[in-house]
Amino acid sequence: MTLNKKQKKQIEATRNKLQRVQQLLAAARKQPDDPADVPRLEKEVAALQAEMEKIRNE
């Protein structure tokens, strides 16, 4: 299945968000200032991955 321009842009934006959140997650694991950060960021990563998969399957 081929992606149109809009889908490619959405995937690129989601990929950028995902990279930022993964960096935050790595930093939160190294220095756990707030214990709620790691689970919150893990949920956000999962949501972004699901969103990217949803866009690909449209």
Present the secondary structure layout:
Elements: H1 5-30, H2 37-56
Helix pairs in contact: 1-2
Which features does this protein show?
elongated; 79% helix; 58 residues; mainly alpha
Walk me through what this model shows.
With 58 residues, the protein is mostly helical. The chain has a domain at 21-58. 79% of the residues lie in helices and 0% in strands. It is elongated. The relative contact order is 0.19.
- How far apart lie the N and C ends? 9 Å
Query: Helices and strands: which structural class?
Result: mainly alpha
Number of helices: 2
Which regions contain 5 or more consecutive residues with pLDDT less than 50? none
Helix content: over 70%
Quick rundown:
Helix content is 79%, strand content 0%.
